[in-house]
Design goal:
Blueprint (H helix, E strand, L loop, with lengths): L2 H19 L5 H18 L4 H17 L14 H4 L7 H16 L15 H15 L7 H5 L2 H9 L13 H10 L12 E3 L9 H22 L3 E7 L6 H17 L19 E3 L2 E8 L16 E8 H4 L9 H15 L34 H6 L6 H11 L9
Length: 411
């Protein structure tokens, strides 16, 4: 079997094993196990079957958590002319490099600008580790799940498993539900994207507190998305926030106002003219696009949440959209026409004829030809009515939750 396919199947197997056995890992647990492997390498070069199992599990589950796709070099790495690129002695180098990158990801904190690293991506490193296994321990690829289930391995994995109640993007209910909806969409690019989901909405917290937790996840997502080529981040709210288009518009205005109020880069973008062409929603120094899905929309509407009784906000930073081959230069207009045609062909009509401003596409009217849904305020009275500004006490509480300075000096 093609090694690229084995990688994909192995990634899925690691996820299924983790969920069935309670051995889901986060960055902290993975870092501990990487240190353990580096220590064991010095004594036996991972000749022990348990060590091999630990290596393959870490590699494939990390690949799953970060939506890693197989690299083309997996096609040729086992050929005689390419095997020398994955010698036995290079394993500690790749393990150490993965440890450095995951440690950077685990320590991301909100700041005025997204932090960057020159270290290798999880995308590349997990592929290199898998190639090393294929070249040096090929027989192990045929016994992955049984090897992971060995009592000594299973006990170790369970001892470092994540807290199932804690937030982890790829395991979050928001993510698991949203990707099911993605599979049903008629957007031609959606199924191939890499997505994460935000933490759960908590009914015992205020709107602002929930938005603050989302902002923390959004900042981490944006930092990692730039390196790992993620496409979008979903935030889920109760169905009541989209019970009607007007309610969804109010919720959109309120959410963006809270985020703008705690923007670490202090863009104040909502003080501009959201209804005008060229306006962008900016956060943490980056512009982004927003797509909303709500329970007010019927099944034949492109913003229908595909049967899930939830309200979704889907954020896509421009830096990932603008790197998509189908959205570069003259291809953008062609791709948008193809997407529109795909939806229309399936009876989910929409158009952008009177929606030149990006903000006019955040929400969709019930009928394609209707005017844009103006979630942004039309005048000062409406701005006040939609709670687009919050008093200092509310702003300071959200800043406190994010770890910012409540006296106005920012993050």
């Amino acid at each position: 079997m093609n090694l690229m396919k084995i990688f994909v199947l192995g990634r899925r197997a690691a996820d299924a094993f983790a969920r069935s056995e309670g051995t889901e890992l986060d960055d902290v647990g993975t870092l501990f196990l990487l240190d353990l492997l580096l220590g064991r390498w010095a004594s036996n070069r991972l000749a022990d079957a348990a060590d091999q199992a630990l290596l393959s599990y870490i590699t494939l589950l990390t690949a799953h958590r970060y939506y890693v796709q197989p690299e083309k070099f997996l096609k040729t790495c086992r050929n005689d002319e390419h095997r020398e690129a994955f010698p036995l002695q290079r394993l500690p180098e790749w393990l150490a490099a993965l440890r450095i990158t995951l440690n950077f990801y685990a320590r991301i904190e909100t700041a005025p600008r997204l932090p960057e690293t020159e270290d290798a991506s999880v995308q590349l490193l997990t592929n290199e580790l898998f190639a090393w296994i294929a070249v040096n321990q090929p027989e192990h690829l045929g016994v992955l799940e049984s090897a992971w289930g060995a009592p000594s391995v299973l006990a170790l994995l369970k001892s470092r498993a994540r807290n199932p109640l804690a937030y982890e993007p790829v395991f979050s209910p928001t993510h698991l539900e949203f990707i099911t909806a993605i599979e049903k969409t008629h957007c031609i690019f959606a199924p191939s994207g890499k997505y994460w989901g935000a933490d759960n909405w908590r009914g015992d917290e205020t709107f602002e507190q929930n938005a603050a937790r989302f902002a923390q996840g959004l900042f981490r997502f944006m930092t990692i998305a730039r390196k790992e080529k993620f496409k979008g981040f979903a935030f889920r709210m109760p169905a009541s926030f989209s019970s009607s288009i007007d309610e969804l518009a109010r919720t959109t205005a309120r959410l963006l106002a809270v985020l703008n109020g705690i923007d670490p880069a202090r863009s104040h973008c909502l003080e501009g003219e959201p209804g005008k062409p060229g306006w962008k929603f900016d956060w943490a120094g980056e512009s982004m696009f927003l797509t909303t899905f709500g329970t007010c929309y019927p099944p034949d509407h492109p913003r229908y949440p595909h049967g899930f009784d939830q309200t979704y906000f889907f954020f896509q930073p421009d830096f990932v959209l603008r790197h998509h081959p189908g959205l570069i230069g003259e291809m953008e207009a062609i791709s948008r026409e193809r997407i529109l045609s795909s939806f229309n062909k399936h009876g989910m009509d929409y158009d952008n004829e009177n929606k030149l401003a990006e903000s006019a596409r955040y929400l969709r009217p019930m009928n394609p030809k209707d005017p844009p849904v103006a979630w942004w305020p039309q005048n000062e009275a409406e701005a006040a009515g939609r709670s687009l500004r919050y008093d200092a006490k509310a702003d300071n509480e959200v800043l406190r939750l994010l770890g910012g300075n409540p006296h106005g000096t920012g993050f």
